[in-house]
């Protein structure tokens, strides 16, 4: 008698899981449950694999029937009975078992898409064949059959939570802010899930963290959890900082026996090997004048540190030349994307801003232009308190006006709320003046009114262009 595997949710991950399980686990019956009606394409796909449409069972009946459950990210474990948690299969564990090439994995609350995408693009300039996947690009299980030299994975807390074996060659945990508290049990559960990216690493592998994790980037209780996990870490600990003197003090205060530090001083971006609080090796990796202007500086520091650890060297041009000539326009979409200047008004699409810290970073960058900012907020809060954003906005010198989109805005801000993005665009064109910067940086997820953040950004740009065409 065959055992049953149930796929809970038939989105991108669910489809990838169906294909993978059908090819590799023939002794199992595969069942499917989804809370939504499937498209005709999805129904045809099920027929192709010999599976009936989603079972008519209730969710509890489905969970009871199947010995193992493949959980898609659209379903929170909070919605499942505790008895089912031990049934959950992790796609990362399947990936770890079947994928044999080197892997660099990236997680964090902000910037992980940028770091993943840029790294994947850069190593190809060094004549290596690589691929990006996970939360972007290829689904994890689709990567297994790809013929490449290495893979770069952007991993969400959803993908990492149930990991029991995945251990990348390099694990990057670039920052941490409260997020996805509608999916996770609490902030500790969210942080613990992120930490699964490095917990199973081996001695010949590397883990990279911001030096701020030793300072004030984490609350005291979360920082205590982090330091406790470092004590059991087998991989090489690496920190990325931006102030050499302060960074060294933080390392000394925490009494690390042997760590790598990547930080900057007046000469540039430097690698240091620190053993028992003494620098035993030092190497300049990049003159900061060669740093590209696109994206945030801290993202580039993680990228350069990773390339150094991978021991990647250009065959012809210098490392500085490859970095300084870097251009990746496709990946600038939806992240502080200056997509239009009309009548000397700049329109920025920052739809990828799904947490308020991303909105703050975007405003900080536009503030440097010393021009008025018109801000559009919106989106779902995912259980996160956004009142610190309002406290920040009250102090922004060049903030001209704030407009809000969607019902969630009423729960955290005092500004006027609109039911549609079109209504907001109509209002903006009535008062925007030459020199203004219009910033669409929602600070929340897109699923209240849009399919995803890409759809939200595309709608914003389309509405702007349609408005201009009627002028």
Can you give a write-up of this model?
This protein has 471 residues and is an alpha/beta fold. The radius of gyration is 23 Å and the shape is globular. The chain has three domains: 3-89, NAD(P)-binding Rossmann-like Domain (Rossmann fold); 92-330, Mur-like, catalytic domain (UDP-N-acetylmuramoyl-L-alanine:D-glutamate ligase); 333-469, Protein-Tyrosine Phosphatase, Chain A. It has helices at residues 12-24, 40-48, 59-65, 91-98, 112-125, 157-160, 187-195, 220-231, 244-253, 297-309, 319-324, 356-367, 387-393, 421-431, 453-469; strands at residues 3-8, 28-33, 68-71, 88-89, 103-107, 130-134, 150-154, 170-173, 206-210, 236-240, 258-264, 269-275, 278-286, 337-342, 345-349, 373-378, 399-405, 417-418, 437-440. Strands 6-7-5-8-9-10-11-12-13 form a nine-stranded mixed sheet, sandwiched between helices. A six-stranded mixed sheet has the order 14-15-19-16-17-18, sandwiched between helices. A four-stranded parallel sheet has the order 2-1-3-4, with helices on both faces. It has 15 helices and 19 strands. Helix content is 32%, strand content 21%. The N and C termini lie far apart (69 Å).
């Amino acid at each position: 008698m065959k055992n049953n595997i149930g796929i809970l949710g038939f989105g991108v991950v669910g489809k990838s899981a169906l294909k993978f399980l059908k090819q590799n686990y023939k002794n199992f019956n595969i069942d499917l449950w989804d809370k939504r009606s499937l498209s005709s394409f999805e129904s045809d796909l099920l027929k192709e694999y010999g599976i009936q449409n989603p079972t008519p069972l209730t969710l509890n009946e489905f969970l009871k029937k199947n010995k193992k459950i493949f959980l898609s990210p659209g379903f929170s474990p909070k919605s499942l009975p505790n008895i089912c948690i031990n049934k959950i299969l992790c796609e990362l564990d399947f990936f770890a078992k079947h994928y044999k090439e080197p892997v660099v994995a990236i997680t964090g609350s902000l910037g992980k898409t940028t770091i993943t995408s840029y790294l994947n693009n850069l190593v190809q300039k060094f004549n290596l064949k690589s691929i990006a996947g996970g939360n972007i690009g290829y689904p994890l299980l689709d990567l297994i059959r790809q013929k490449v030299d290495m893979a770069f994975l952007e991993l969400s807390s959803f993908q990492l939570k149930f990991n029991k074996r995945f251990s990348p060659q390099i694990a990057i945990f670039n920052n941490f802010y409260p997020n996805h508290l509608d999916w996770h049990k609490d902030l500790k559960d969210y942080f613990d899930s992120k930490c699964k990216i490095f917990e199973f690493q081996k001695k010949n592998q590397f883990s990279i963290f911001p030096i701020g994790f030793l300072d004030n980037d984490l609350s005291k209780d979360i920082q205590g959890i982090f330091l406790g996990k470092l004590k059991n870490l087998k991989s090489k600990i690496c920190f990325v900082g931006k102030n050499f003197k302060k960074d060294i003090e933080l390392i000394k205060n925490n009494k690390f026996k042997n760590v790598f530090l990547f930080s900057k001083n007046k000469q540039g971006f430097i690698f240091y090997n620190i053993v028992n609080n003494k620098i035993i090796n030092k190497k300049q990796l990049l003159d900061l004048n060669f740093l590209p202007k696109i994206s945030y500086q801290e993202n580039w520091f993680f990228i350069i540190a990773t390339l150094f650890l991978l021991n990647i060297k250009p065959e012809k041009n210098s490392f500085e030349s490859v970095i300084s000539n870097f251009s990746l326009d496709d990946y600038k979409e939806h992240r502080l994307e200056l997509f239009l200047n009309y009548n000397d008004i700049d329109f920025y699409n920052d739809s990828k801003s799904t947490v308020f810290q991303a909105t703050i970073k975007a405003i900080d960058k536009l503030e440097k232009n010393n021009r008025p900012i018109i801000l559009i907020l919106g989106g779902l809060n995912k259980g996160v308190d956004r009142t610190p954003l309002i406290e920040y906005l009250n102090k922004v010198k060049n903030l001209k006006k704030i407009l809000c989109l969607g019902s969630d805005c009423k729960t955290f801000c005092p500004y006027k709320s609109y039911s549609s993005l079109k209504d907001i665009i109509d209002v903006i064109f009535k008062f925007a003046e030459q020199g203004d910067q219009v910033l669409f940086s929602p600070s929340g997820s897109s699923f209240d009114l849009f399919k995803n953040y890409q759809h939200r950004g595309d709608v914003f740009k389309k509405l702007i262009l349609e408005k201009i065409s009627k002028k």
